[in-house]
């Protein structure tokens, strides 16, 4: 159990009577291997997993599965999980650094941001000497982040 007593509200107004919040959890985790603080931290972070689940469904547009057949939906979910992991990795290595085209700092980027900032980049595909080359505009805001991800893959 956790008890929080607040004497000031979120607008910094002093409360006449303290606001007392009591949280309690029932768990099957072994208390011999997990202390109380670890268990509370696990339950406090359940919202984070809900955010990832929501991002997986909405940003990859799989709120509804396309088929009534289990094997087809299994394939779609497997491909969606692979796509999710690839896009998360690209966002982690290219859109959280100093050369990121996004205006504010963050520890991670949503899949929608990764898709909009790096997958929708305008480029010209040039074939010359049996080689394919992408040509970006001179002032492309996402070029450095794209180049960073490309080089980390070992192609650059």
Structure description:
- It is a single chain.
- With 156 residues, this protein is α+β, with helices and mostly antiparallel strands.
- The chain has 2 domains: 1-44, no CATH class; 63-156, no CATH class.
- It is 43% helix and 19% strand.
- It has helices at 36-44, 46-59, 70-94, 111-119, 143-152; strands spanning 2-8, 14-23, 123-128, 131-136.
- It has a two-stranded antiparallel ribbon. Strands 3-4 form a two-stranded antiparallel sheet.
- The N and C termini lie far apart (53 Å).
- The mean pLDDT is 85.
Question: In brief, what are we looking at here?
Answer:
The protein is an alpha+beta fold and 156 residues long.
Counting structural domains, the number is: 2
> Average pLDDT value?
85
Order of helices and strands: EEHHHHEEH
- Output the strand order for the largest sheet: 1-2
First and last CA, distance: 53 Å
Number of strands: 4
Percent of residues in β-strands = 15-25%
* Helical stretch tally: 5
Based on secondary structure, the structural category is alpha+beta
Report the major sheet: 2 strands, antiparallel
So what's the overall shape? extended
Radius of gyration: 23 Å
List its traits.
156 residues; alpha+beta; 5 helices; single chain; two-stranded antiparallel sheet; extended
Blueprint (SSEs and pairs):
Elements: E1 2-8, E2 14-23, H1 36-44, H2 46-59, H3 70-94, H4 111-119, E3 123-128, E4 131-136, H5 143-152
Antiparallel strand pairs: 1-2, 3-4
């Amino acid at each position: 159990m956790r008890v929080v007593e607040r004497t000031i509200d979120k607008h910094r107004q002093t409360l006449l009577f303290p606001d007392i919040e009591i949280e309690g959890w029932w768990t099957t985790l072994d208390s011999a291997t997990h202390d109380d603080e670890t268990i509370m931290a696990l339950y406090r972070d359940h919202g984070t997993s809900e955010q990832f689940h929501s991002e997986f469904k909405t940003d990859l547009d799989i709120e509804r599965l396309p088929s009534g057949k289990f094997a087809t939906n299994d394939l779609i979910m497997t491909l969606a999980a692979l796509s999710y992991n690839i896009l998360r990795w690209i966002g982690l290595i290219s859109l959280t650094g100093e050369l990121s085209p996004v205006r504010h700092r963050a520890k991670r980027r949503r899949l929608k941001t990764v898709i909009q900032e790096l997958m929708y980049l305008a480029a010209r595909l040039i074939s010359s000497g049996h080689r394919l080359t992408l040509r970006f505009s001179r002032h492309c805001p996402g070029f450095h982040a794209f180049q960073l991800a490309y080089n980390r893959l070992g192609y650059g």
